[in-house]
């Protein structure tokens, strides 16, 4: 099977694709949120992405087309992938990442609730297409003031060493209460990682959060 056939025939559950994302990684980025999560961290502010709901099904080709659309508009090859849990759809994730690398996306940041050692052992073939990984489940009791993560147990792994200067600086940044509130398809989304106290208050509202 040639690659375009694989891309066209493989499906994936995607909650949202959006740009510009300014609050999940350095610079201007395209954001992709997978739909479906088996980890289900207590206190998660993205519970609407937990269900493996087939109404969110797209082909990889459709996802790539939408990413390319945003990439051209905002002149960026940086992308942040979150969820949901991307590795719960590992076959689709592999095909998507491989295609993104073929298209010269040179800064792929991915959030996963699984720990790095587990991913390294079971999905090393996928990790080679990821430039920066932020791992670990969200733990409500472990507060952090770092901009890039939701709880203090989570760690950043810079797998593409050419990006180390950019991400070492990004790691130092503290939460600044900067979040994005956007509307798409008659839904409202909050993009970014608020501090835990804010998350608890915000979770009482009916606004979707990512």
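Q: What amino acid sequence fits the structure above?
A:
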């Amino acid at each position: 099977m040639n690659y375009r056939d694989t891309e066209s025939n493989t499906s994936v559950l995607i909650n949202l694709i959006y740009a510009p994302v300014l609050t999940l990684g350095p610079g201007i980025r395209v954001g992709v949120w997978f739909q479906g999560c088996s980890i289900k961290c207590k206190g998660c502010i993205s519970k609407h992405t937990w269900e493996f709901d087939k109404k969110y099904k797209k082909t990889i080709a459709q996802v790539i087309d939408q990413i390319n659309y945003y990439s051209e508009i905002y002149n960026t090859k940086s992308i942040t992938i979150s969820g949901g849990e991307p590795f719960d759809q590992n076959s689709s994730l592999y095909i998507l990442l491989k295609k993104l690398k073929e298209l010269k996306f040179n800064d792929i940041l991915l959030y996963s609730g699984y720990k790095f050692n587990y991913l390294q052992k079971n999905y090393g073939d996928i990790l080679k297409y990821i430039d920066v990984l932020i791992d670990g489940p969200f733990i409500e009791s472990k507060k952090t003031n770092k901009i890039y993560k939701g709880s203090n147990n989570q760690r950043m792994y810079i797998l593409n060493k050419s990006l180390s200067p950019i991400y070492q600086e990004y790691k130092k940044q503290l939460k600044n209460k900067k979040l994005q509130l956007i509307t798409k398809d008659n839904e409202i989304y909050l993009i970014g990682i608020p501090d835990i106290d804010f998350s608890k208050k915000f979770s009482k509202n009916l606004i979707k959060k990512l």
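Q: And what stands out in the fold?
A: The radius of gyration is 16 Å.
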